[in-house]
Design goal:
Elements lengths: L7 H27 L6 H22 L8 H5 L2 H36 L10 H5 L1 H21 L12
Helix pairs in contact: 1-2, 2-6, 4-6
Length: 162
């Protein structure tokens, strides 16, 4: 299967990782040099970590790299394997659909209530809105992967050494 370059979710995950590293390194240098610390580092780092996690999950969903038990898949006939693919997709869409619904509701409430973050006083909805957006991205990537798997286009297996 041909992997597209420059997927938005992969770029977003990369930017979030770079931001976490830059914020953490900057904070360590400033703390070492001045015995003071940046106030925003924890708030932004946690936000970037959430974005990194969800964007990375979208990339993994697209390329069939999520942790799962494959033993059953390998020994099933093709028709049964396709049923398992659809069941896996349905389970994922159910969980992520619930996350999207509640995340959207939560983000809307944060916006309506004009809640501010405790550290910097920024609007909380700026942080929270990424949960439903990236949950939808994962659903889209899972759907693309499921369609590819049903058509027989499967990425080569990754062998994980322990």
């Amino acid at each position: 299967m041909e992997k597209s370059r420059g997927e938005v979710d992969a770029i977003l995950a990369t930017i979030a990782l770079i931001a976490i590293c830059g914020i953490s390194l900057g904070n360590v240098i400033v703390r070492y040099a001045t015995d003071a610390s940046f106030a925003f580092t924890e708030e932004f780092s946690v936000f970037c970590l959430v974005v990194l996690t969800f964007a990375g999950a979208a990339v993994a969903a697209r390329h069939n790299q999520h942790i799962r038990i494959e033993l059953i898949e390998h020994y099933l006939p093709l028709w049964a394997r396709k049923v398992v693919y659809v069941l896996q997709w349905l389970a994922g869409v159910t969980v992520l659909g619930i996350m999207t619904w509640y995340g959207s509701t939560f983000a809307l409430q944060e916006y309506q209530w004009e809640s501010l973050s405790p550290g910097l006083g920024l609007p909380n909805w700026i942080y929270v809105i990424w949960l439903p957006l990236l949950s939808v991205a994962i659903i889209i990537r899972m759907t693309q992967n499921t369609i590819d798997r049903l058509r027989g286009k499967i990425d080569p297996e990754v062998i994980h050494e322990s």
